[in-house]
Amino acid sequence: MHRDVVRESYSARSQEYMDLFGSIDSTHPSDQALMASWATTLTGAVLDAGCGPGQWTDFLAQCGLVVSGIDLVPQFVERARVQYPDLSFEVGAFEALDAATESMGGVLSWYSLIHHNPHDIEVPIAEFARVIRPGGGLLVGFFNGATVEAFDHAATTGYRWSVAELSQVLVTAGFEVIETYTRTGSGYRPHGAIIARRRSGEDTPEIDG
Hints:
CATH architecture: 3-Layer(aba) Sandwich
Shape: globular
CATH superfamily: Vaccinia Virus protein VP39
Number of strands: 9
Strand order of the largest sheet: 3-2-1-4-5-9-8
Strand content: 25-35%
Number of helices: 7
Structural class: alpha/beta
Radius of gyration: 16 Å
Low-confidence stretches: 204-209
Helix content: 25-40%
Largest sheet: 7 strands, mixed
Number of domains: 1
CATH topology: Rossmann fold
């Protein structure tokens, strides 16, 4: 299965990943500002889907949110539990979340969808839509490109998305796109982020730039 490949690939390089990216100090200042701003719009339980070693989970907790993390990679969850013992972390996939429908105030998916190809990315996004209550928030971070395109990621095949194409997937799943961001610079791949709100049944789909 696809997620088994992802789990095994990251497990094999888990220590390297944690050494490079396992602290909030390794994250971009503009990402921290975006995350902190988004946190102020949320109420209720928040899930960090694809939490890795937990640095963003803890960041959101420091922003005052009730937040937990889930990740495919046992080594990441083990490290997160040791590093942040006051927070809850579980091993699992987010194609089928152990959460009641409309029970979450928000979901963070920070680079956790980058290995889903265009034919199956709708599955986890639909699951996010199921568990987020109307008016709740979703923040997605991803590799930005002119169009959907596969590339050779260090772990396993990754995918770039244009803001417009990923936004349309979110809208189709029941979200309203609130804000979008892109940035690029020397030494890293172009980055994109989308802040979306879970629509109620009465809302009309709309995409804002």
